[in-house]
Amino acid sequence: MTRRRFPDSKTLASICRFLARCRAATHEACYFQLGDLIWRMAYAPNKFDLDHDLRVWTDKRGAVVGVAHYLARERNPELFLMPAWYAESDQALGDEMASWVRDRALRDGVKEVETSCVKGFAEKEAFLERHGFHCFGDPYVFMERSIKRIPDLPTLPVDYEFSPGDPDTPLPGITRSTDFDSFSSVATAPFYRPDLAIRVAYQAREIAAGCICWLDEAGSVAEFEPVGSVEAHRRKGLASAVIVRALHRLRELGVSKAVVRTDDSNLPAVALYERLGFKTTARELGWSLTIE
Ligand SMILES: CC(C)(COP(=O)(O)OP(=O)(O)OC[C@H]1O[C@@H](n2cnc3c(N)ncnc32)[C@H](O)[C@@H]1OP(=O)(O)O)[C@@H](O)C(=O)NCCC(=O)NCCS
Question: How close is the Cα of 251 to the center of ligand 1, in Å?
């Protein structure tokens, strides 16, 4: 079966504009960045299916006013409405979105789903409560740094060199996943930029570390997704090197801010980002819904 992974580029661009407007009205962490969206759709093990896993609501002029996304592998719906629209005054759209989530989960016979919400995002918290979700914790941190003053370009250890991020060379298993080939699917995703996919090769034959940065068309904030080093090559400064190199490229492109999300319990990642000047500016909590 062939699954369509991406909406057409016009729809994708309007989703990005919608998310950017919502972020501007709240906080960078409150809505997906381009990288979150693309990763969910492009990363092959997610088996994203455009016909069933994405629903976009538009107004009469065709502007996006709501987006719901379902990550079947993790039973994880994400529901995005303009902040004011989460409020009770406009229940119709919110109700429709919540029903879509239930129907989507039932389609897979799923009895419980988990979504996320930035701690203190009152409109969305109230919306989730109204629709039967309960907060259970499991925090993620959202970190950001300005790109004005960045560390100097790093020197790599002997035997390591930067390697081009071209789509024909698959990315290795640089996150916790062991599925090496799946990374090539990300390299063919819309908005993938080889100049922002920085990798380090070991002895010119093996990729040891890498990161991908995603920039939406507004182009002022870039998101790192993913970042990783292959286990045998860790604690050699490689993840730091790819991030710093990407920051230099972002500065050349006039980007003002870089952001990253990670699991609060991922201490190596949090330590790495803090050391590189990222600060935690928001926390996301998990919310679960039992489907009856
Ligand atoms: C987190 C990760 C990317 C670090 O990669 P790395 O190449 O080992 O990182 P670096 O060598 O550049 O480390 C730089 C600094 O980060 C911190 N750090 C890295 N790993 C650490 C660990 N296991 N424990 C504590 N601090 C750590 C340290 O301050 C380190 O500096 P030091 O080695 O001089 O003490 C790597 O462990 C990894 O790939 N983990 C799995 C994937 C992942 O979690 N990615 C991030 C998800 S957003």
Answer: 23
- 234 close to ligand 1 (CB < 6 Angstrom): yes
9-139+284-290 homologous superfamily: Gcn5-related N-acetyltransferase (GNAT) (3.40.630.30)
Q: What is the pLDDT of residue 146?
A: 97
Mean pLDDT, all residues of the chain = 89
- Residue nearest atom 25 in ligand 1 by C-alpha distance: 268
Q: Pick the residue with more confidence: 205 or 215?
A: 215
**Confidence category of residue 1, pLDDT binned at 50, 70, 90:** very low
Q: Per-domain residue ranges for the chain?
A: 9-139+284-290, 145-283
- Is pTM, for the whole model, over 0.85? yes
Q: Which CATH number fits domain 145-283: 3.30.565.10, 3.40.630.30, 3.40.50.720, 2.60.120.10?
A: 3.40.630.30
Three-state secondary structure of the chain: CCCCCCCCHHHHHHHHHHHHHHHHHCCHHHCCCHHHHHHHHHCHHHCCCHHHHEEEEECCCCCEEEEEEEEHHHCEEEEEECHHHHCHHHHHHHHHHHHHHHHHHHHCCCCEEEEEEECCCHHHHHHHHHCCCEEEEEEEEEEEEECCCCCCCCCCCCCEEEECCCCCCCCCCCCCCCCCCHHHHHHCCCCCCHHHEEEEEECCCEEEEEEEEEECCCCCEEEEEEEEECHHHCCCCHHHHHHHHHHHHHHHCCCCEEEEEEECCCHHHHHHHHHCCCEEEEEEEEEEEECC
